[in-house]
Design a protein that fits this description.
InterPro entries: Homeodomain-like_sf, HTH_AraC, HTH_AraC-typ_CS, PchR_regulatory_protein, Tscrpt_reg_AraC-type_HTH. By secondary structure, the chain is of the alpha+beta class. The protein is about 45% helix and about 20% strand.
């Protein structure tokens, strides 16, 4: 990591750099720029309102409100410009962390969960937690930043203090991300369930298998589906299978046994019983007219 910015720098090591930028000069447009080091993670906390950011690596301009933040991974060294207009205060805190430090911290080779989180970080899945709206800092995040800015001790104690606070910030970010992700997943849970059933109804579909695939409790799956589609999963699966069977039964080139298997039945007898219950006539009689 290159120590390229001295003004406002409140901490620097080979792995971590922290910069507090404040500019309240009475200029029409207040500007600043910072460098994202090669293979580095950058936490950027907006401490004043109406900040514009132009990122060199993606050629996109963003607008931030006060107390919003982003976590961004940069694979190559790049520059970003920040500015405000109408003589507004420009204040932000940048924490830059090397990829190797995060890699050693997570130790992704030891855990799939750690590996998955690191992958999400490098793919920048934590930039916008609320679709196109950057997330807001929590009260705890504000407290941690204040502690980092005001900490006065130096040397090894400062290093340990800073690293502990950064770990806590990352935990809060992941918790915020997970909470949002869980909320979105919960609101769309019935859609995920139905999609899975629509794609797999012709197989030997069991609720416990569905539960494992989606990572959701069996009772919750049943409740969500019934609440949104006013049908049990069993009845819905049977309906899909019978609709498919009725289409196939008119093709006399396909054996009834083949239709039964194709519709998810291991035994012809079970298929014939379900078919007759649904249509009031056996598949053989319907085929033969």
């Amino acid at each position: 990591m290159k120590n390229t910015i001295k003004e406002g720098q409140i901490y620097y090591s080979e792995e971590i750099s922290i910069l507090l930028y404040t500019n309240s000069n009475k200029e029409k447009c207040l500007k600043s720029s910072f460098v994202e080091g090669k293979s580095s993670f950058n936490l950027l906390f907006m401490l004043s309102p109406n900040i514009n950011l132009e990122a060199q690596d993606c050629g996109t301009q963003f607008s931030f409100k006060e107390n919003q933040y982003i976590l961004h991974y940069s694979s190559q060294e790049s520059k970003a410009k920040l500015w405000t207009e109408n003589q507004e205060l420009l204040k932000y805190l940048q924490i830059q962390i090397t990829y190797q430090y995060i890699f050693n911290l997570f130790n992704p080779q030891k855990s799939k969960e750690s590996s998955d989180v690191l992958e999400q970080m490098t793919k920048n899945n934590f930039i916008f937690l609320h679709k196109q709206t950057p997330p807001l800092m929590t009260v705890e995040m504000h407290i941690i930043l204040k502690e980092i800015i005001e900490y006065s001790k130096k040397g090894m104690i400062q290093k340990l203090f800073i690293e502990a606070k950064i770990i806590k910030l990352l935990i809060l970010i992941f918790e915020q991300f997970t909470e949002k992700d869980d909320t979105e997943n919960s609101s769309k849970l019935h859609i995920r369930i139905k999609k899975y059933i629509d794609e797999n109804y012709h197989k030997s579909l069991k609720i416990n298998k569905l539960s494992q695939e989606l990572g959701i409790n069996e009772n919750k799956i049943r409740k969500e589906f019934k609440e949104h589609y006013h049908s049990t999963i069993i009845d819905y699966v049977c309906e899909l299978r019978m609709l498919k069977a009725k289409k196939l039964i008119i093709d006399k080139n396909i054996m009834i046994k083949e239709i039964a298997i194709d519709c998810g039945y291991d035994y012809v007898q079970n298929f014939s019983r379900a078919f007759k219950k649904k249509f009031g006539i056996s598949p053989e009689k319907l085929r033969n007219g």
